[in-house]
Amino acid sequence: MRISTITTTVAVLLPVSVVAAPTLEQRWSSPSFWASHSGHVPSTPPTPLPPPSYNLSLSHVSIGRGTQNYTCDLSNSTAIPVAVGATASLYNVSCIATNHPALLSMIPGIAINLPLPSSSSAMSPINMDLAGHHYFLDATTPFFNLDTQMHSYGIGAFKKVNGTSAPQGAVIGVDGAGMGAVPWLKLTEKIGVEGSQKLKEVFRVNTAGGQPPATCQGQQESILVEYAAEYWVYV
């Protein structure tokens, strides 16, 4: 069976003591498990964005790997790409966020140079590391589905409340070629879409790639630009 390339690469980089966790459930349940081993637990993402709301707690940290999606009006010679959402697979890296925060910040830049994750059956090894999926309900409503056959972390629809450009030196794209890294974002619950949802806030930080071409000249109607990022999820 196929094992996630992203997960395998991360495992190679980690000390044996981290990879050889006691059980799968303990390993990916939440950062609180790792606090008992390392003496601390991460609480806020490394970002200039506004902090999480005071009454929320960190659920887990994931690496997202997928595409930022754009569309072009081919009938307009001066058109520029318009963002229409994103799709990504999310991989839980809460243990790394707790024990190896410096390594965590490197992973998006590594992940973007690995193949895009492909779908797999529920029982394949890739799903043991899969936190869930990220996509858009419409052009302005990012959605996170973190319920799988392995776990139920919750679902949620969100809206953007703050953003900042990716810092200088961010990975611009696959193999160091591209138009730049997408912004860092703070997302909050979008009331009225999913009712009372468990997930309340999401931060996208340490982005790699994802920016579209400057114009639609020579492009197709649909443009998919590969990206990777950290996602910090709060409940």
From TrEMBL:
This protein's superkingdom? Eukaryota
- Residues of the signal sequence? 1-20
Which InterPro entries does this UniProt record tie to the protein?
Answer: DUF3455 (IPR021851)
Q: Name one Pfam family in it.
A: DUF3455
Keywords (alphabetical) are: Signal
Q: Which PANTHER family does its entry note?
A: CONSERVED FUNGAL PROTEIN (AFU_ORTHOLOGUE AFUA_1G14230), MALATE DEHYDROGENASE (AFU_ORTHOLOGUE AFUA_2G13800)
Query: Under what name is this protein listed?
Result: Malate dehydrogenase
Gene source species: Aureobasidium vineae
